[in-house]
Structures are given as C-alpha cells and as structure tokens.
Specification:
47% of the residues lie in helices and 14% in strands. The protein is of the alpha+beta class. A four-stranded antiparallel sheet has the order 1-2-3-4. A hairpin with a 5-residue loop joins strand 1 (51-54) and strand 2. The longest helix has 39 residues, at 128-166.
C-alpha cells in the first residue's frame, strides 16, 4: 500500500465507522413508510452533513448519512482514456449485478463512479465492521484490478500490432 493511500483509507474507514450508527426510522410524512432518508430527502432534520474525503482531484469519496441509511459514492482514479473506459465498463458490469451485492446501488451519483447504499437493515443483518472491511477492500482492490486490466490490454495490443506488422516485412 502506498504512503498516500494508507492515510486516505484510514480517514474513509474512520468516517464510515462514525457515520454507520443507523437505526430504524419511519417516515414523518407517511405512516408506516420506511425508505432510506438519504435517498428521498424528505426531512432535513434526519440528514447528516455530507462529508467528502479526497486523496486528489480525481480520487474521492462522498459519505452522506441519515438516521436510517448511509450512501457512499466513490470516484476512482482514472489517469488516461484507457483507464476511463476500463473503469466505466467494470463499474457497469458490477452495477448490472447489483442484486448480488446487497449494498451496491444500480446508478452512481453524478460525478462518481460507483455508489453503495447501506440501510439499517444491512447493519442489523450483517456485522458493521465486516461491511466496512468490504468497502475498504473494494477501494484497495479496484485500483489494482484496473491497472492489471490496463496492462493486459496493452500486452494484447502489442502482440496484435507485432503480428499485424509482420505482414509488411
């Protein structure tokens, strides 16, 4: 882990631990209506102040909390066009399978690559520290995955170019 990644991930972990104090909370407008308040934003008094943790301009995490839910949006580092395409395709692949990842949202927030929605049901059914560990592991592994995909793509491109240019010799 790089020297700048560790403090960034520690800040995100600490913020998640503090924001993940979720409890059951019914709507104040509709009786027996239970929706994630961070999504519907019906009452200002149950929303927490959003917090953005940035490593640099392109790599950041937005954590929005409420009394019964937490939305975490992640912007992944994309240095060039190849990384942008790979990131977009990989995130699209994951979001199409969002029902298998219980906390993954199908559509990320504007300006971010992927979003997670954690409700009080998730914290009741799963361990909080395991949820946080999953998100931290995801954040550390996604950069590695995209870098590996980029290296594989460059290698295949190099092999294809060599084979193609052999015809001209």
């Amino acid at each position: 882990m790089s020297a700048t990644l560790k403090p960034y991930l520690n800040a995100v972990r600490t913020t998640l631990e503090a924001a993940m104090c979720l409890e059951n909370f019914y709507s104040q407008r509709v009786e027996r209506h239970l929706k994630p308040e961070v999504e519907i934003r019906s009452s200002k008094e149950v929303l927490f102040t959003p917090l953005e943790v940035c490593r640099n301009d392109k790599e950041k995490v937005l954590i929005e909390g409420s009394i019964n839910s937490l939305r975490m949006s992640i912007a992944i580092k994309q240095a060039d066009d190849i990384e942008k395409i790979l990131c977009h395709k990989f995130m699209r692949f994951m979001m199409m399978r969002a029902e298998n990842f219980f906390i993954l949202r199908r559509k990320p927030l504007e300006g971010y690559d992927i979003s997670f929605l954690i409700t009080n049901y998730h914290t009741e059914q799963m361990y909080k520290h395991k949820l946080i560990d999953f998100v931290m592991e995801f954040m550390t592994e996604i950069d590695k995955e995209i870098s590996e995909m980029k290296l594989c793509l460059n290698g295949r491109g190099r092999i294809s170019a060599v084979e193609f240019l052999k015809n001209f010799n």
